[in-house]
Amino acid sequence: MSVSSEIASRFIQLVNRSHQLNGRPFDEGTKLLPPGGPFRSWVHYGVMIPDLPAPHHYFTVMSIVGTPGATVFDNDFALAGEPRDTAYLISSTASMVPGQFRSYSISRDCEFREDGSFQKFGADLEIEGEFPNWKVRRFSDGVEVTLNIEATSTVSHFAHIPKLYNHWSLLCRYTGTVQHSGGSDEVQGLCTFEYACGVGRYSIGSSRTPARGKLPLNFFTYQVINVNARKQLLLVQVLGPGNFPLQQTAYVRSLDDLGRTYNRAVKLTVETYQPETETTPDGFEMKVPRRFAWYAEADDGKPVLSLSCEVAGPFEFGLGAGYASWFNYKGTLEGESIQGKGYLEYIDRR
Predict the structure, then answer these.
(1) What's the CA dihedral at 33, 37, 40, 46 to 10 degrees?
(2) Are 173 and 152 in contact (CB under 8 A)?
(3) Residue 14 pLDDT more than 80?
(4) Quick one: which of 83, 82, 64 has its CA closest to 121?
């Protein structure tokens, strides 16, 4: 690592204090509060399952309530009124018809209980409960997903910048059903339950139009793998201007421990792209991966992660200003050979 890169990395750690929280049990008094006030002008609720049986393959809830004002997450073309009054949602499985992205007027179409115990997005999605138990109901033409989620105390903190931005993910068990084509599949396993909140471009005052100057986050990927029935792997890369790495981290966690993080030499390499770009609804031509690889080392320099991955499904728009899909992988993690399928979020606005 160069001197300048090391200085930048240390500066990021000073700002983002997530490293001080990772490895500690979740604060059970944490509330999933809806937007409110300048320090919580937007929030995110998320649920991700990477390994449902065919034909579903994955399930995602990726919602943003309010408009952050960041390049990779804003969908200005889909404003349903003022930016702070707009909620955005993609919730899909591979068995749902394409085009699951939705936007809503929060005041007209949604319900968010002030204590954070209930969220409703139009007639499409409901999340109800408090730690450690939630119920998720997703309604779509031809497919209905019902999940009972039980959280553990194992939490991964992606960002902790007091009064500016907090983002965390709980390791959870789930049971439920996916109804489709006149049948019903019983499902169970590991999933994530996630929440974020923060200050955004619309924290002060009221704006009826999109902000011109956005937070220049240009690349974002988040990937979830259930290694086995007890262990989960989360992979994150976030790039700013000039491909500067704001975050490159591998999170390993299980039902048996509070998890650990790897930040040394974490690298995502896109080996080949899909032969055709994806065109977003606002006209952006985005290259999306076909084959890609992950690598990471422990603090002592020994390899702990090496994965070869290949996208196995179509890309569904609405993951912020990018896409969700699923992939097959094989490789090694902490000396163990692993293979299976994972969940992919990918946004490249460079």
Answers:
(1) 40
(2) yes
(3) no
(4) 64
Tell me the longest C-alpha to C-alpha distance in the chain.
60
Question: Residue 189's closest CA among 231, 251, 154?
Answer: 231
Mean pLDDT (whole number) for 289-316: 97
Q: Rounded to whole angstroms, how far apart are CA atoms 105 and 350?
A: 29
Per DSSP, the residues of 227-275 read -SSSEEEEEEEEE-GGG-EEEEEEEEEETTEEEEEE-EEEEEEEEEE-S
| pLDDT(13) > 80 | no
**Number of neighbours of residue 309 by Cβ within 10 angstroms:** 25
Q: Which helix (H) or strand (E) holds 166?
A: strand 165-180
Contacts for 60 with CB less than 8 Å, ≥ 6 apart: 46, 47, 48, 49, 90, 91, 92, 319, 324, 343, 345
pTM of the model: 0.94
Contact 286, 295 (CB under 8 A): no
- Helix, strand, coil fractions of the chain, as percent rounded to 5: 10, 55, 35
